[in-house]
From TrEMBL, chain A:
Residues 51-93 form a coiled coil. F-type ATPases have 2 components, F(1) - the catalytic core - and F(0) - the membrane proton channel. F(1) has five subunits: alpha(3), beta(3), gamma(1), delta(1), epsilon(1). F(0) has three main subunits: a(1), b(2) and c(10-14). The alpha and beta chains form an alternating ring which encloses part of the gamma chain. F(1) is attached to F(0) by a central stalk formed by the gamma and epsilon chains, while a peripheral stalk is formed by the delta and b chains. The gene is atpF. It is a single-pass membrane protein. The chain crosses the membrane at residues 18-37. This is ATP synthase subunit b. GO terms for molecular function: proton-transporting ATP synthase activity, rotational mechanism; proton-transporting ATPase activity, rotational mechanism. It comes from Nocardiopsis ansamitocini. It holds the Pfam family ATP-synt_B. InterPro entries: ATP_synth_B-like_membr_sf (IPR028987), ATP_synth_b/b'su_bac/chlpt (IPR002146), ATP_synth_F0_bsu_bac (IPR005864), ATP_synthase_B_chain (IPR050059).
Automatic annotation (TrEMBL), chain B:
HAMAP family: ATP_synth_a_bact (MF_01393). It is found in: Cell membrane; Membrane. This is ATP synthase subunit a. The gene is atpB. Coiled coil: none annotated. It is a multi-pass membrane protein. The chain crosses the membrane at residues 51-69, 107-132, 138-157, 178-195, 201-226, 233-252, 258-276.
């Protein structure tokens, strides 16, 4: 065992040891205060920042993706809407074209019918006119013949009348053929 | 008697069952008074003793630990950095924040220094071959207790806005009726400004002192009882006794480690408590 110092009061305080202790403590304190704690706090703060920043970035990315999705959805809906509109428009156009064509056809048909009517009317008028002229001529002919031939005998008279009537019939049939 | 036994007996070992051998001498407080290697013969000084050397070792270890754990800093912590951060957060979350709240964070460097310094000095008691807690010499706890004492008084004066206000807040309990003040004020003065720093220093000193004495006793007893040369029966008994004592020594060494940590913790906790009280408005 080491040799013992003379003084043996366990509650002694030695000035030199106290000063050594303070010097040692000051050294440790300076290292902690100037070096260790600032570095550790800085790194802890940085880490907290970076973790929070990471969360923030993830949130932003999520928001961006959601926005993009919304945009796509809107575009899709718009496409659906415009498709439906186009379809409707096409249907309307088709109906319009059909209606127009039908109207045109009706007009044309009416026009043709009217033209036919007019033609028939004109032909009829023409035929009537011709008939009237013919009848006049024939009447004049007949009268001339009746007057020109003496009414000597009944037979002759009878023949004249028959011939006239025959001619008349003949004329009428040709006239009718002309009208047709 | 063989020559070996004689040698053992001469060194205080193997005394048990040795007829005419030395009686058991329990370690005295003398073990806390190592003789100086350098003595400068000034009153109130001890000279350079084992304590001063162990103080240097303890401080060196503390400085090395602090440097090692804060040397490399990266966002993804490496091993040494993690240890430093755990230590830092331990002091902050277990001592500083519960005692002083967030506004006490500026005293973290002081608290960290106190803890690591006290713990390093304590741990000298169980490091093989050194085996003497520096804090078992009252001079060292008194030094740092004084630092805390001065700190909390300065903090108190600053945060209360003047010496008078601080002293009034510290020694006049609020809400006490006037007639009892002549009794209370002296008690408060003695309690806050005399007993508080004294107990702060003596608590860690006394624990380390007693713990070391206990370990020394177990070691000495184990050595004293170790006497296999005392014949078949007595030799066996002596070895068993010695073994039990040495086992106790080992167990109590582990126990001491816990106490060393706890005392450093308590010392730092009280420092935080005192500073926190001074900081608060009364």
């Amino acid at each position: 065992m080491l040799g013992l110092a003379a003084e043996e009061n366990v509650l002694r305080i030695h000035i030199d040891e106290l000063v050594f202790g303070l010097i040692a403590f000051v050294l440790i304190f300076v290292l902690v205060y100037k070096y260790a704690v600032p570095r550790i706090t800085k790194m802890l703060d940085e880490r907290a920042d970076s973790i929070e920043g990471g969360i923030e970035r993830a949130k932003q990315a999520e928001a961006g993706a959601e926005e993009l999705r919304q945009q796509y959805r809107e575009k899709l809906e718009e496409a659906h809407r415009s498709y439906a509109a186009e379809l409707q428009k096409a249907g309307e156009q088709r109906a319009a074209i059909l209606a127009e064509a039908r109207e045109e056809a009706q007009v044309e048909a009416r026009r043709i019918i009217e033209a036919a009517h007019a033609q028939i009317e004109a032909d009829r008028q023409h035929a009537l006119h011709q008939l009237r002229t013919e009848i006049g001529t024939l009447s004049t002919d007949l009268a001339t013949r009746i007057v020109g031939e003496t009414l000597a005998d009944n037979a002759a008279q009878g023949r004249v009348i028959d011939r006239f009537l025959a001619e008349l019939e003949q004329d009428q049939s040709t006239q009718q053929a002309e009208v047709r | 008697m063989s020559a070996d036994t004689l040698n053992l007996a001469a060194e205080g070992g193997g005394g048990l069952f040795t007829p005419g051998g030395p009686g058991f001498e329990a370690p005295s407080v003398g073990i806390f008074f190592p003789s100086p290697w350098v003595d400068y013969d000034i009153p109130m000084t001890s000279g350079i003793t084992k304590y001063a050397v162990l103080l240097a070792v303890a401080s060196g270890l503390a400085l090395l630990f602090l440097w090692w754990t804060s040397r490399k800093q990266s966002l993804v912590p490496n091993r040494s950095q993690s240890i430093g951060e755990i230590f830092f957060l331990f002091i902050r979350e277990q001592i500083s924040r519960p005692m002083m709240g967030v506004k006490g964070d500026k005293y973290l460097p002081l608290l960290i220094s106190l803890f690591i310094f006290v713990f390093a000095m304590n741990i000298m008691g169980i490091i093989p071959f050194l085996q003497l807690p520096v804090t078992s010499n009252l001079s060292y706890p008194v030094g740092i207790a004084l630092v805390v004492y001065v700190t909390f008084i300065v903090v108190g004066i600053r945060s209360q806005g003047g010496v008078g206000k601080y002293l009034k807040g510290a020694v006049v309990p609020s809400g006490a009726p006037g007639w009892i003040l002549p009794l209370l004020v002296p008690i408060e003065i003695i309690s806050n400004f005399l007993i508080r720093p004294a107990t702060h220093a003596i608590r860690v000193f006394a624990t380390m002192f007693a713990g070391h004495l206990l370990l020394a006793t177990f070691a000495a007893a184990g050595w004293y009882m170790f006497n296999p040369a005392a014949g078949p029966l007595f030799g066996t008994i002596s070895v068993l006794f010695s073994g039990a004592s040495l086992l106790a020594f080992v167990v109590f060494t582990a126990f001491e480690l816990v106490i060393m940590f706890l005392q450093a913790f308590v010392f730092t906790l009280l420092a935080a408590l005192y500073i926190g009280q001074a900081q608060e408005a009364h």
